[in-house]
Specification:
The structure is a homodimer. Chain A is built from 34 helices and 33 strands. By secondary structure, the first copy, chain A, is an alpha/beta fold. In chain A, strands 14-24-23-16-17-18-19-15 form an eight-stranded mixed sheet. An eight-stranded parallel beta barrel of chain A has the order 26-27-28-29-30-31-32-33, surrounded by six helices. In chain A, strands 1-2-7-5-6 form a five-stranded antiparallel sheet. The relative contact order of chain A is 0.06. Chains A and B meet through helix 25, helix 27, helix 28, helix 30 and helix 31 of A and helix 25, helix 27, helix 28, helix 30 and helix 31 of B.
Chain lengths: 893, 893
């Protein structure tokens, strides 16, 4: 026997593990041990650690030495605890075998219940329980699950039917019954034999009757499931390293299916959708746990707080004693864990057992409310509250909702399973959702029920609609986790996968038809519905205030219009970090002047055209400065190559020629002359401004005239003029000279003082490498991490889609570096740029204005690197604020 | 008076300066002082230091305080030395005023002779010398030069006539004479008055009669000339910093124009074209120095060694006494400076004066021969000899010469002014040369004579042909410096700028006609002439052997064919640093197979096509390995994006469709699908190999099969397989796995052992930044500095031409970073890559295979950075070898 401990025993007040041992025991195993330590009634069992999983995969799917002995020893302790014997027909001990990784991967992993059973043991169980139907139902369930999971009879293509379900359906039809529960003991016996025959036929082997063989088979299946396709997919989507492995929990069975004094259920200690402090859950009488989660029968509410229909019978009403005990336990658990818990329980013949507790998944709104409430309840402090909400989640709260005043043709109402508003075209299969979404379509995934195989399609869908399943069904849990709007259990629907139709009454929706879902009300609406900006709750405001008090990093926004600036300011933006001026060039008559400039043969011609642009640009800047009064506004001078302003289609070129009064040939010649092989690396950014200083001059003039005019009106303006694509100090020096000369002239003309700065983007690798030199000319730096990522990796963002997807799928890259900053490569340049820049100017203001400014992980990096601010799109401003606070809490340095 | 010393006096044995003070006194001033120290007869004078020039430009064109007093003091000392007085008609002292920068800038700067003269002084001079014609000729020359240079009457557009020349021409016509020397004293007096009138007319001011005013005017003009266009241009071409400034040398005039016992000349202490140890020079009787250099009269040889025509009278014959003295002096100077000298002298009434000495410009062949000879003469050591030859110069020796067996229609013969062979199309103006060359045309610049304004055109011309001027004329000196082939003084030509024609006898050549020049024989040849590889001299071999003994850095070559490999090996390449495999894909039938692969729908289809390519590739590698037997050969796997292998013109697409038996639409669809916005940053390099591992597999197989076959034949092969465009360790790991698996399979199949390595290009910035990680997988690194430069600067090499030229012209960049490695930016990444790579693998072999591998400055950088080798194109291998030796001498570390 090796020195290493692989197996951890647990029973009430006798656990070898504890909550802190999640990495080793997985979340489920650690929490089972912790509940035992708290004296909560937990059926005894043992956990095989995640190290066994890792060793198993490292060692060519072989178990480590000594494991078998440890399992036997732990099993003996469980037998002693339970006073039963595994494999003993006279007093049998059955087990559930479940996976349990460090972080919850709902429905991703395989589970086997009622293990340790065969015909002889079933008979013994029947005798012992006095309930042969229960015994045979348990055996039937075991053979089916073991056949599916361990013996791999579950069809890979989920549209194919499960062979066992086929047999059951046939049996029900033969017997003329509708529900499984209507089948007799005899029927169940027959089913078992038919199942076994099917297994023999498909695998060529007899069903294993030996309980020990069953146990090792199930353990192997759990470890095996760690590497199945849907688990790998889930880990990719959720960035879980495959090295973490899963633990296996072997736990004594308790039976919710022994009769009407039995039940099984799941509950949340607070409402996972709203965060409201109510005890919230569902249960099924005479059932096993899988029945609730799978959404096959529609469960009942555990108490009146979520009762929506008088016909419903709550657990509180039906079994008041165990319910009361459950309430005490949930309070104890929430108080102990200081977080909202997601619990599973089973009541066997009136006795309550806890099968799981874990921190519950929740919507963003719930996360915010629970965090704020718990501070007010004195359970947690503000820092903890701020850490409790995943910044990325806030996105759900910030995006538009349906306009309450809009006409809505509600065709059905289901459960409000995951909040939000979604409009899209109907698809009926996850694969179709992925295909359509890849083409840029907004889709609503409509399913009878969802299953883990649908994960990819659920991820890309704007909303999810199911016909069956409750608030804790697969669809609901997963959708809330993803922040995707979901309406579940909408029984009025009739879905035909075959015809690709969904009927509601006599209305038929076909694939591709538009519908809208309101995940906050459960409404299913015909067609498209207009949306409005959300109103943010008081809880949200409180939490963000705490975040603002904590964070060191400023948060600005990328905004090119007064409207965007206003939205962002309402979301808490502390200035503009990037105002792109080129977008303004496309509007209305402006493009004509821009094209006139491009066609001009000489500087004089260009100046004439630029004269026409000046008033437009001045007006743009006036509006933006006003919207951001009192806050800094960073404006980038013209960045894209000039050919972007010319039409490329023959027809449009003809149009342009006519409009400009030149020949088509002239237009074509100019387009040809400006054509570039790699425009990304071509004549753009400050390279343009150096070749055509008159463009920079016009822009500087427009900025400064607008600023001066506003100062005269008493508005505070802080323009920061930013030169793009600088790679050498000399470039910045050149453009700065143009800007300063113009600015000083305007200030003199207008006779007011404006406090302006001239700085540069750091977006070319060379700029970061020589930041000490560039800082001699720069009054601020702003990292343009989009371009910096393009050049540091050598990836054209427009072209990289082809291989980036593949790179991520193959694990060559962990993330899309355009979404989350590549800290080890691009990040080095950012760090270097900051350090070198501040070597030259100790107090150099440094920000980031790539899209990474709104990515929480990248925000933490920016905090650690000592940046002054991040700048991101308006809707991501709160996300960045929260991420910045979390960064400060984690890295207070 | 300030503490600073600005003015340095010199006179025989009494100089305040010395040769080492070049930075302060300029080359000319320092050497005048040094000659004085050596007791060589030098007319006394003084040097105003370069610090005055720098101060002058820093201080808004104002002289520093105290300068005037120092000049007056120095002037007084010269007066005392000469026993004459500046401005004294009874015993006048005249001066020459010349520029003199740290490094020689021939013909770039302005000069004024005979300064300190007016009508009264002229009369005094006439009386004193008894030679009124000389006195008035001196005054005439002064007014003309001062008018041109100081008063700026010289036309900017050199096609416009000099106003003074117009007056002279008219005078000569009026007098019915042909030569200046035929004009009488009276004529010269009239000319002076007409010149003065012209000056009054053009400038509105009287000609300055005050000698002191003349002196300060001339000094100002010299400083002013430092910033004139042609000086700026010259500095750019020769990478001379403008901060260096120029000194001004004010030197007592000696007169070569006092009569037939007077002369002036220039000479080289060895033949500057061949390096042969002969005293080599030209002189003119009764002339001033400018007359020789300007090429107006054709000078005579100083001795019989270069006498080509019995009618010539040598200086040795004409004035044996001063000639003998000159010989003694040149020997003394060469021995003192330990280098070939370029000297200027004037003989005034039989007395010899030295006006200048400097290290002489020379051809590459001469540089090599002189260096080797001087070692053999015991003058210098081998390290000094190796340092004496500019590596870049070797280019002249290595490029093809005219095939001696080719039929050549020689139409004229001029002076063999600068060796080499050139074929090109005739242009008559420097601007045309630049324009045509920009369009990719090879041009021969044909001029009556060249002048400093022509420098741009001379730089781009393949060859230069002049009608007038000797071996030391502007055209000859500049062409030798540039290593451009030049035939000078070809008097048989009749050139008409007007008609853009060149007549030779009754043959007329027009602009655009093809001619060929042989700069080593002086032949002008009609049409194009085929070239052959040059034979390298024994001196060359000796020098290169010394270089090889010294250098630490290995030199490999970039070669894609057995022929290139063989050429490079003959030039001393020690292996192949880069063999690009994609060029092989275009030849013959291969492109068809490549296209078949691209059109294939699946891996099986691609494999079928790749099967067809395999034997071709194997054959390629077989030949290359064989040519490089015993040396390492680095082969890069496929690098360019696949669309480069598809036709883009309709017509060619149609052709391809027919050839491949597919529809035109299919071809077009594939072209469209593969189109990229920025191919440089797209799906290429290892990204292709990762998507289509079968391509890498085929290439690895071809390499290893060829290697194994050769090993069986007893040939030593060292394949190094190199993965391009790696940015992450995972990419290299992926491709290395494919290569190693294939290689091991081939080795097993063939049953022989081959020692192969797998490494990577470091050409993406991220690769350099994470080189420590990448080195875990790499067995060697090779810096691809072309791509690394593109990405570090964000410059697409295909597009950057538009702004790079401007950047260099405006001083935003000092050099084209694609030609000479940007050490402060890209170089940091190289350094980082080396350091980080060797952190992981102490002995990691690191090379460079960008074009920078053949750039001498970059080679020095590579040496300093600790690279193991550089790799460059075959013809640059000797250049790199020499540069590597010089690096070792300079930085022996």
């Amino acid at each position: 026997m090796s020195d290493k401990k692989y197996v951890y025993f647990f029973a009430a007040n006798k656990a070898e593990g504890k909550a802190e041992m999640k990495n080793l025991l997985g979340g489920k195993g650690a929490n089972l041990a912790e509940m035992c330590n708290l004296g909560v009634p937990v059926p005894p069992g043992f956990t095989i650690s995640t190290e066994v999983c890792t060793a198993y995969y490292e060692n060519n799917r072989q178990y480590p030495e000594g494991l078998e002995e440890e399992v036997k020893a732990a099993l003996a302790k469980v037998e002693e605890e339970q006073g039963k014997k595994f494999g003993d027909p006279s007093n049998p001990l059955l087990f559930s075998v479940r996976s349990g990784a460090r972080v919850s991967m709902p429905g991703m992993m395989d589970t086997v219940l009622n293990l340790g059973i065969n015909e002889e043991i079933t008979e013994g169980l029947a005798k012992l329980s006095g309930n042969p139907r229960f015994a045979w139902d348990s055996f039937r369930r075991f053979v089916q699950m073991y056949g599916d999971v361990v013996l791999d009879l579950k069809p890979v293509n989920k549209e194919d039917e499960d062979p066992f379900e086929v047999i059951i359906e046939k049996k029900k039809k033969d017997r003329g019954v509708e529900l499984d529960t209507d089948l007799t003991t005899e029927d169940l016996k027959e089913l078992v034999n038919e199942f076994k025959a099917a297994i023999k036929e498909k695998t060529g082997k007899d069903f294993p009757e030996d309980p020990m063989e069953q146990l090792w088979g199930a353990v192997g299946a759990v470890f095996g499931s760690w590497m199945n396709d849907r688990a790998i997919r889930y880990r990719q989507l959720n960035e879980i390293p495959s090295e973490w492995g899963t633990a296996v929990n072997v736990q004594s069975m308790v039976f919710g299916n022994m009769g009407d004094d039995c039940a099984t259920g799941v509950a949340f200690t607070r409402d996972p959708a709203t965060g409201k402090k109510i005890f919230y859950g569902e249960y099924l009488v005479n059932a096993q746990g899988e029945d609730v989660v799978a959404g096959i029968r529609t469960p009942q509410p555990i108490n009146s707080s979520t009762k929506t229909d008088p016909s419903q019978v709550t657990l509180e009403e039906l079994m008041p004693v165990p319910y009361k005990e459950l309430v005490e336990i949930y309070k104890k658990l929430e108080h102990h864990y200081k977080d909202m818990q997601d619990i599973e329980f089973t009541i066997q013949q009136g006795k309550l057992y806890m099968l799981q507790t874990r921190n519950g998944k929740r919507t963003a709104a719930a996360a915010v409310r629970i965090a704020v409430d718990m501070v007010e309840e004195g359970l947690i402090d503000k820092n903890t509250a701020v850490m409790r909400v995943a910044p990325e989640q806030l996105d759900q709260l910030l995006h538009p909702m349906f306009d309450p005043k809009a006409e809505k043709n509600v065709v059905a109402t289901g459960l409000p399973a995951s909040p939000g508003a979604a409009t899209g075209r109907i698809v009926f299969h996850a694969e179709d959702a992925e295909e359509w979404a890849a083409k840029g379509e907004d889709v609503i995934l409509v399913r009878i029920e969802t299953s883990p195989e649908d994960i990819g399609g659920m991820h890309v869908a704007k909303g999810i609609l199911t016909q069956r399943g409750g608030m804790t069904s697969h669809a609901a849990v997963v959708a809330r986790g993803m922040g995707t709007c979901c309406v579940a259990g909408c029984g009025d629907l009739e879905i035909s996968y075959q015809d690709k139709t969904m009927k509601v009454g006599d209305k038929v929706f076909k694939e591709g038809d538009w519908i809208s879902l309101d995940g906050s009300t459960g409404q299913v609406i015909e067609g498209k519905v207009p949306t409005v900006d959300p109103e943010l709750s008081g809880h949200f405001g409180t939490l963000m205030q705490w975040a603002d008090d904590i964070r060191r990093l400023n948060v600005r926004t990328n905004a090119d219009t007064p409207h965007d600036a206003t939205v962002a300011r309402n979301f808490g933006a502390e200035g503009i970090g990037l105002c792109r001026t080129e977008h303004m060039f496309f509007e209305g008559d402006r493009i004509k002047a821009v094209r006139e400039m491009i066609l001009a043969d000489d500087e004089a011609g260009r100046r004439t055209a630029l004269e026409k642009l000046l008033p437009y640009q001045r007006e743009d800047f006036y509006g933006i400065f006003k919207a951001m009064s009192g806050l800094p506004v960073t404006i980038r001078t013209l960045d894209p190559p000039l050919h972007e302003f010319l039409p490329h289609e023959d027809e449009n070129q003809q149009e342009m020629a006519e409009e400009m009064g030149v020949s088509l040939e002239e237009v074509k010649a100019k387009v040809e002359a400006l054509h570039e092989f790699n425009p990304m690396l071509g004549h753009r950014g400050c390279r343009l401004g150096i070749t055509y200083p008159e463009i920079t001059e016009m822009q500087a003039r427009a900025i400064m005239e607008a600023a001066c005019d506003l100062v005269k009106e008493g508005v505070e303006v802080y323009p920061e003029i930013m030169i793009p694509l600088v790679g050498t100090k000399a470039e910045l020096k050149n453009q700065k000279a143009v800007v300063v000369a113009t600015a000083e002239k305007v200030i003199e003309e207008k006779g007011v003082q404006v406090d302006y700065k001239v700085g540069t983007m750091i977006e070319v690798p060379r700029a970061a490498l020589t930041a000490n030199e560039i800082a001699e000319e720069a009054e601020f730096f702003s990292f343009g991490t989009n371009d910096l990522t393009q050049m540091t990796f050598g990836y054209s963002r427009d072209d990289a889609g082809v291989f980036l997807k593949e790179y991520i799928a193959r694990g060559i890259l962990e993330n899309d570096p355009f979404q989350s900053l590549d800290q080890s490569g691009v990040g080095q340049l950012v760090q270097m740029g900051v350090e070198k820049g501040r070597q030259t100017k100790k107090d150099l203001k440094v920000g980031i204005c790539g899209e990474h400014g709104g990515d929480p992980k990248s925000v933490v990096f920016c905090h650690q690197t000592g940046l002054n601010y991040v700048s991101c799109s308006p809707y991501r401003v709160p996300i960045a604020r929260l991420a910045a606070a979390q960064a400060q809490i984690q890295f207070p340095g």
